[in-house]
Amino acid sequence: MADAQQVAAEVQRLSQMSDEAFMDTVVAYVMGGTDKRAPRDVQGEALGSPQLSPRTLDALETAMRRAKAFNPLQEGESKREQQARIAPWRTRIKAAMGPIQDVVDDLAHEHAKELAALSDNAFTDRWTAFVLGEPVPEPTSPRVEALAFRSHKVAGRAADICRLMLEEPARFMPEPAPGESRNAREHRIEGFRLRVVAEARFLRYAVQYAEARQGRMPSEPNHRLQALKLLGKAHPQEMLELLRQVRGEDRAASKAARRDRRDVRRAARSGAR
């Protein structure tokens, strides 16, 4: 087992690397390379440590997307031959993700407990900052923060705030810049709502998972009802007029239906005589 002090020093060294240098180091390690500055066992424990595992996972995922950059087309090699050469490389990268993902999941599980213990105001502030893309307080990484919020432990709580965010976006958004135009304001609000909707989709899966764990059938969101509620808040007078119109049409339709049924009964009685 690697020496704890050596691992701590390697974590510190790797933490200071740029994203590109760090990714190259991760890929080299996975492919069996050795670094003269640290033994393999030390480097392996550092890359899989709680401090670095989220960044290591990010690097592995990015490397997977850039497989051709790490395995450029060689002279005289066809693209099919390049793909055949890349396939085992991808397999090794993917295999390396598993243990790192487990560490990240454990971190998210523990962080979800911390979020669940926050007061309502503190939780709302933390969720709002996350939706707005503000820096995540150290030592938590953005990946762990996202996974924790999408945990079944707190997803329902965050989903409730999402509904308020869609109804009253200005309440959660930063103060507008002086002299902001109406178009700029509407564009900013629309962007905020899009981010809320995107995050709400992830939360929905977590909430449904929690319901399923308790033996309940997950419920589908009533988008029509949600849209009507938003419309009613934005245009209450118009909504009332529409309701009166629809109710009037319903009453007229019911009255006509009753009249038709009455006519049918009378005709039946006349025919029977």
What does this entry look like structurally?
With 273 residues, the chain is mainly alpha-helical. The chain folds into 3 domains: 1-104; 118-221; 235-272. It has 12 helices and no strands. Residues 245-273 are annotated as: Disordered.
Element layout with pairings:
Blueprint lengths: L3 H12 L3 H12 L9 H8 L5 H13 L1 H4 L8 H38 L3 H12 L10 H8 L5 H13 L14 H32 L9 H12 L1 H37 L1
Helix pairs in contact: 1-3, 2-4, 4-6, 6-8, 9-10, 11-12
Sum this structure up briefly.
The chain has 12 helices and no strands. By secondary structure, the protein is mainly alpha-helical. Residues 245-273 are annotated as: Disordered.
Distance between the termini: 103 Å
Spell the H/E element sequence.
Answer: HHHHHHHHHHHH
- The count of domains is 3
- Please state roughly what percent of the residues sit in beta strands, choosing from under 5%, 5-15%, 15-25%, 25-35%, 35-45% or over 45%: under 5%
Rg of Cα set: 29 Å
Structural class computed from helices and strand pairing: mainly alpha
Q: Which percent range fits the helix content?
A: over 70%
Number of strands: 0
Number of H/I helices: 12
Unreliable stretches (pLDDT < 50, length at least 5) are none
Backbone shape: elongated
Q: What number is the mean pLDDT?
A: 86
The biggest sheet, with number of strands, parallel, antiparallel or mixed sense and barrel status, is: none
Keywords summarizing the entry:
single chain; 273 residues; mainly alpha; 3 domains; 0% strand; elongated
